[in-house]
Amino acid sequence: MTDVPMVSGLDSDGIVVEWTKVKNLGSGSYGQVHLAKLSNLISGDHLLAAVKSCAYSRSASIQKELHILRQFEDSNRIVECSVMW
């Protein structure tokens, strides 16, 4: 699959980023998970990440998941979780 521009916005640190869908990894009841290339629009840095997205009407589930993951953000057993608006 070719890169398809998806979203530009601010990450949880206030950095302007754009994520580009590379591949659909799966979907479930509340949304989809994509392999995505994240690009920092200021520094030009890039990284690959799994990005979960959903329709706004289903966003309460992802918000609840984020709230739970933030309780464990200092654990070395939890992958980093960031938010992009």
Automatic annotation (TrEMBL):
In this chain, ATP is annotated as bound at 52
List the InterPro entries hit by this protein, alphabetically: Kinase-like_dom_sf, Protein_kinase_ATP_BS
Its domain of life reads: Eukaryota
For this UniProt record, give its keywords in alphabetical order, as a comma-separated list: ATP-binding, Nucleotide-binding
Q: Is ATP-binding one of the keywords UniProt gives this record?
A: yes
- The protein here is known as Protein kinase domain-containing protein
Q: Which organism is it from?
A: Hibiscus sabdariffa
Q: What is the lineage of its organism?
A: Eukaryota, Viridiplantae, Streptophyta, Embryophyta, Tracheophyta
